[in-house]
Write a structure and sequence with these properties.
The protein is mainly α. Helices cover 69% and strands 0% of the residues. It has 8 helices and no strands. Helix 5 runs parallel beside helix 7 and helix 7 packs antiparallel against helix 8.
Length: 203
């Protein structure tokens, strides 16, 4: 039994590859091949190009970073880690930062005790120490946001205590410096919030 060719379109719109006469002279296998190509071409045009297969996301390795991760991984690099490596890096970072906060706020308590005892030199030294710790944590503008925020928190506590100290001792030039640095920190916090939104939008 001979395969039936598709109905002919009007001559002006005929895109069948060969004429009826040519088609009838072909073997059944050749006719079948032409029909399959004809049908396949129709559906290819009708359905449009197939969606490209989703490319597998490529991650960077946590092994390329030195520890502690909170000082060596940037926020951008953190999101290029696999979910498993992100979890490892964040677990270590939060533990380390928690320990730093405990230590730093212990120093603040010492500073407050010194100020209550009118030992202003020890008070100032302790507050400067905490301020420097905070600055070290927040120094890398490309660093992990959680690290920067903890650093800023340490800076703010130290500067607020400095305002109290210098107001009490009448050193108003230092009061002004501390207040200006507090305003700068608020601007930095806004910058961090905007950066976090950008990373979240691009994930």
């Amino acid at each position: 039994m001979q395969a039936a060719e598709p109905a002919q379109k009007p001559a002006a719109d005929n895109d069948f590859p060969i004429t009826k006469e040519q088609f009838e002279q072909l073997s059944q296998d050749e006719q079948k091949e032409i029909l399959e190509e004809f049908v396949a071409d129709f559906w290819k045009d009708e359905l449009g190009p197939a969606e490209a297969p989703a490319q597998e996301k490529r991650y960077i390795s946590l092994d390329i970073f030195n520890r502690p991760y909170m000082q060596t991984i940037t926020e951008r690099e953190f999101f290029e880690l696999s979910p498993e490596d992100q979890e490892k890096a964040m677990a270590e970072t939060t533990t380390t930062l928690r320990d730093i906060r405990v230590h730093v706020f212990g120093v603040i308590d010492q500073a407050r005790q010194s100020m209550a005892n009118n030992d202003y030199l020890s008070t100032e030294a302790n507050l400067i120490y905490e301020l420097e710790v905070g600055r070290e944590l927040s120094a890398n503008r490309d660093g992990m946001i959680i690290t920067r925020l903890v650093g800023i928190a340490c800076e703010k506590v130290a500067l607020n205590e400095m305002v109290k100290l210098y107001t009490g001792t009448g050193d108003f030039s230092k009061v002004q410096i501390a207040q200006e640095q507090l305003r700068d920190i608020e601007m930095e916090v806004e910058d961090i919030k905007n950066t976090a939104k950008e990373f979240e939008a691009n994930r």
